Every structure is written in structure tokens, then in C-alpha cells.
Amino acid sequence: MPAPSKLGRRMRSLVREARGLRAVAKAVVSTQHPLLAHIIPMRRCNLACTYCNEFDDVSSPVALDTMFRRIDKLGELGTSVITISGGEPLLHPELDDVIGRIRKNGAIAGMITNGYLLVAERIQRLNAAGLEWLQISIDNVMPDDVSKKSLKVLDKKLQLLAEHATFHVNINSVVGGGVNNPQDALTIGKRAIELGFTSTVGIIHDGSGQLKPLGEDEKRVYGEMKALGKRSFTRVNAFQDNIALGQPNDWRCRAGSRYLYICEDGLVHYCSQQRGYPGVPLEEYTKADLRREYMTEKSCAPQCTVSCVHQVSIFDRWRDPQMPAPFVTGASTADALVQIK
To answer: Is 201 helix (H, G, I), strand (E, B) or coil?
Structure first.
């Protein structure tokens, strides 16, 4: 297939921007629906980055009919954006159908991938399936013992995306624990912008998603990356300033409500780093569960570095103060909600 025309790309971009604006407007007006859900169709990954605790090398793909039921349930809850994550989602043999089901439910379809499996034909299939945005995290310029997600290995993949993708592409680089050369983040960010993508920077957290302060070189690179990221796809990242300084954030985490993480077993968790809470099957999740978690204070919030939850929660920072989680013996969910209110 020929590369998409500039007009075709521009039209897709305008439609995508309009859908995004509608999602933002809905988020401001209503607090009764999830803004973002990460869903896992594949826990297995073709890489083994030493800092990552979100993969294995044995899991089978989640069955397509199961994925459909979960996506339909997210649609019933009114979810605005559904992002496919992993593991490595491109290993799922029916990924295009999963993307199509997200779009059928009216949600914005995104994906996070390591990029290794991208070729021109695969990118074109993602276009046809209706993917709207994609993120690749690149950890270093040259592969090392910590991560093989390097610019050297992935640059040809990025060139293919620049040529063929009609969806938005964001390249995320990282600073923090395990990254040998903080300057690599700046090199990666500049390359992303050169290719027409947006660029963001993340701060690597510890194994439970908690704060790990930056060193002086890392702080300098973070500052340069923040200036570089004026075209960033995710501009709401002021919380990272405190993280870079090793200081806690005072915010209202809405995980379990405005943000949902659905693992391969179909359970709803606060995030990828706090799996087990609330641990309710998605098929049983209700508006009452959303409201409970919306109003519940999370003890891990001050030291949290999980950027997607911070960014989603910004919509409700100014309203609805939270209370500590209720621990009432024998109380039902409805009872707990009454006490929270």
C-alpha cells in the first residue's frame, strides 16, 4: 500500500482532535465515567527490561470473545479512552479486532508498544483497524543490560511510523533508576520531534510505582526535556516537577474511577503498580464502584509517579475532596458509599 497522503493524515488528525475535545468536555461536565482505561490482552513480552514488572514470557493471549466482553463493559461504563497495553500487545494475534471493538464502543483507541514488531504492513493494518494514538518508550541510545529498547534498534521503526502511520505517535524517554546515561533522553526526544512526533519524558519509579528522586544530571536533563516538550501530547505533567525534586505531591488520585487498569484476568486495579486493589472483576464493576473509588483517598498517592493516573486525575483536582477508605465490618458497598458521602 502507498504511504498516506498529507491530506489524508490531516483529515485523520482533525477527526482525532475533535474526538479528544469532546472527551475533555465530557470529563469537565461529568464525574460519573472513567476517562482512561488500560486493558491487557497479552501479558507476555518479547523483551525483558530489568526495571519492568508488567510482563512474563509464558502467558497466552486473552481470547478475543473475552476481550470483546471487557471492552463492551468499559463502553457501558462510558469510558472515554481505552489504551491497549501489556506485556507486548502486538503479540496478540487478533489485535486489530480488539482495536476495532474499542472504536465500535465509541472510545478513543490507543496502544503502548515496545515497537520491535512494527513493519510497514503492520502499521498499515493498525491504520485500517482505527488506532488513534500510539506510544513507544525508548530507554537509551544504545542497548544495555537494563533495556534493549534503544534508539539504535528502533530508529528504523520510527522512520516507518513517520512514513506510514495515520495515528498520532508519541515517543517517551526516561530518566531515573537504571538509566546509565541521562543525556540519552534528550537525544531521543530531539529525534522524535525531528520525525514529526511528540516527545514526553518519564521518571522511572520503583517496583510499587513510588517516588525515586533524581540526581543532579538527571534533573538537568529533565529540565531540558520539559522545555523540548512544548509540543508534547501529554502536557499536563507539572506533578513531575515535585517528583524530580524528591518531593511528594498533594493531589486527589481517582484511580479505580476515572482511571481503570484491567489485567489479563479481567480484574480492575488502581494501576499497574498497585495490582490487587480493588481487585473486582470488570464484569461486576458498577457505577457504585466508580463513585466509591472516586471519593476514596489513596494512601500511595503522595509518592506516586504513575503519570497516566496523575494526568487523568487533574480534571477533578478542584472538586470533590476525598476521604480515607472506609473499613466497616459487614458493610455493603452501598453502606460504604453513604458513609463516604
So the answer is: strand
